[in-house]
Each structure stands twice: as structure tokens, then as C-alpha cells.
Design goal:
Helices cover 72% and strands 4% of the residues. With 302 residues, it is mainly alpha-helical. The strands form 2 sheets. The chain has a two-stranded antiparallel ribbon. A two-stranded antiparallel sheet has the order 3-4.
Length: 302
């Protein structure tokens, strides 16, 4: 009996060379620690640290580790922060709506194509995701700037007499830049939701006498709604937390909540108040995700 041996404990035959029950148990524990421990260590611990910091205060440049709601009271009491927060929500909503409209049009046109051209155009549509974020912002500055391509085009076509400063260093520039940069994040989930629509449903609608417009309104649009919601949600969440785009193309008029948080950490060195602002932004994002999930669930039930 060379290949089998009995376990000393009498638990039954055990294949020679196979890991012992004790070793298998250790492996399962290590695997569970990796599965649950890494997210806790890399995600939940930093978030918990931010949450704890938000209840501390800063006095004379020193962090006072005493539990207080002073930072949240300051946020609610100061109209400037409330105004910036509401303005950022409004800006992110416009960016999300703009990206959703143009993203849906592009995704739908690409989806209607056949053969390799469909996936080639899809690749070209989302390839900006692989580009450096800073490079994309500088590219938009060159387009929207006073001597940029947009002003050059408007002047040479006779629409404007002289270059305009309307497109740079203001909220409009921030909105246009974010909408362009984040557009691929809307295109991809919308296209994937369109791709999942069975051709038999479109054929059935046509067989029943449905016109292309009716098929789109009653079949394509409802079935692509979850992907549209996800795309708009991606864009809105990214726009809410973006502080670099407002700083580089918004100038003094492009102050957003992300810049307010960054200024508390990088300029005022009031980390507890910055952490409180970050927690407010995080709770807002969670609330938006819950509302989007409820809308998607309601649409799916219908």
C-alpha cells in the first residue's frame, strides 16, 4: 500500500501528497482574509479615517482630537460652502445630461452599424479613456482658449468679429471640458445595453407593423435605459469630485466643491474641515447612486 495511507486520527484514507485538512483550512482562512481583508484595508479603512478626521478640529494649526460636529455645523452655517455645493451639483447634473444625450446618439449610431466597422468606431469612441487626463485638459484649453481652434473657426466663418473669452476660465468652459472628457464613460455602458437587445425583438416589432420610431420608443429606449442610467451616473459622480478641470479651465469663476475640498487639504491645511466636506460629498454620491438604482429597478419592473 504505497499510494494510500490512513490518517493517524482515523478520519479515513488520505491520498499521499494531498494537503492535510489543517492545511486546507489555513488556505481557506488565508483566501477569506484576502477577499474580505484587502477591500477593508484599502477602501474602508481610509474612508473610516476620513470620517474620524471630520469630527476633529484644527486650532492654531494643530489638530485637536476631540469629538465635535463643529465642521458640519460650519458647512451648514456658511452660505459660501452651501452655494458652492449646490452649484457643483447643478454643474455635474448638466454635464451628466449633456454626456447622456451625446453619448446615446453616438452609441446608437455605432450600434446600428454592421460588421467590423461597428467595433472599430466603438474603439475610436472610447480610446480617449487610455489617454492621460492632464493631456486631455490641455487639449481642451487649446480648443477653447482665446487663440484656440473654436475662436478661430467662429471668426473665420463670420459668426464672431473678434475672438471671445466666453469659452475659457468660467463655468461654461468647465462644463464643456467635463462633458467632452467624460463622454466615453457614457458611450460604453449605453452601447453595451444596446448590444444586449435581441434582434428578434426588433424583428417582432417590425412584423407587428411598428415603424422605426415606434420600435425605438417602445423597445430600444426602455431596454437601454439601465445602461443609460449607469452612463449618466458615471459621468455625474466623476464630475462631482473633479477638482483639476475647474482649476485648469475654470479660473477664478470655476470654483467647485472639489476645489473647496482640495484647498482645505493643500492650502488651508485644515484637514478635519476638508474631511467633513469630503464626507458630505461622499454621502451625496451614495444618495445619487441609490436614487439611480431605484429608477433603474422601477424601469426594469415595467
Amino acid at each position: 500500500m504505497t499510494d494510500l495511507s490512513l490518517a493517524a486520527s482515523g478520519a479515513g484514507p488520505m491520498i499521499a501528497g494531498a494537503p492535510s485538512p489543517h492545511r486546507r483550512q489555513l488556505r481557506r482562512i488565508a483566501l477569506r482574509l484576502a477577499v474580505y481583508g484587502l477591500p477593508v484595508l484599502l477602501i474602508l479603512v481610509p474612508l473610516a479615517t476620513f470620517l474620524v478626521y471630520s469630527f476633529w478640529t484644527t486650532v492654531d494649526g494643530q489638530v485637536v482630537q476631540t469629538f465635535t460636529l463643529a465642521n458640519y455645523i460650519d458647512f451648514l452655517a456658511k452660505p459660501v460652502y452651501r452655494g458652492v455645493f449646490i452649484g457643483t451639483l447643478w454643474l455635474a447634473s448638466i454635464v451628466a445630461a449633456t454626456s447622456l444625450i451625446f453619448g446615446y446618439i453616438i452609441a446608437y449610431l455605432v450600434w446600428r452599424l454592421e460588421g467590423r466597422l461597428r467595433y472599430l468606431l466603438l474603439l475610436l469612441s472610447v480610446i480617449p479613456l487610455a489617454m492621460n487626463y492632464i493631456v486631455k485638459i490641455y487639449a481642451m484649453r487649446n480648443i477653447l482658449g482665446y487663440n484656440g481652434f473654436l475662436n478661430w473657426l467662429l471668426v473665420h466663418t463670420g459668426i464672431l468679429d473678434t475672438p471671445s473669452k466666453l469659452f475659457i476660465f468660467n463655468q461654461t468652459a468647465v462644463m464643456i471640458t467635463m462633458a467632452v472628457i467624460y463622454l466615453p464613460y457614457a458611450i460604453l455602458p449605453i452601447f453595451l445595453s444596446l448590444e444586449r437587445i435581441s434582434p428578434s425583438l426588433l424583428a417582432a416589432s417590425a412584423d407587428l407593423g411598428g415603424r422605426p420610431g415606434q420600435t425605438f420608443r417602445n423597445v430600444v429606449l426602455p431596454l437601454s435605459l439601465p445602461g443609460s442610467i449607469v452612463g449618466a451616473l458615471f459621468v455625474m459622480v466623476l464630475a462631482l469630485g473633479d477638482y483639476l478641470t475647474p482649476q485648469m479651465v475654470g479660473g477664478n469663476q470655476g470654483f467647485t466643491f472639489g476645489r473647496a475640498i482640495w484647498s482645505q487639504f493643500g492650502m488651508a491645511f485644515n484637514w478635519p474641515f476638508g474631511a467633513a466636506l469630503a464626507v458630505v460629498l461622499l454621502l451625496s454620491v451614495v444618495l445619487i447612486i441609490l436614487v439611480a438604482a431605484a429608477i433603474s429597478r422601477h424601469a426594469r419592473v415595467k
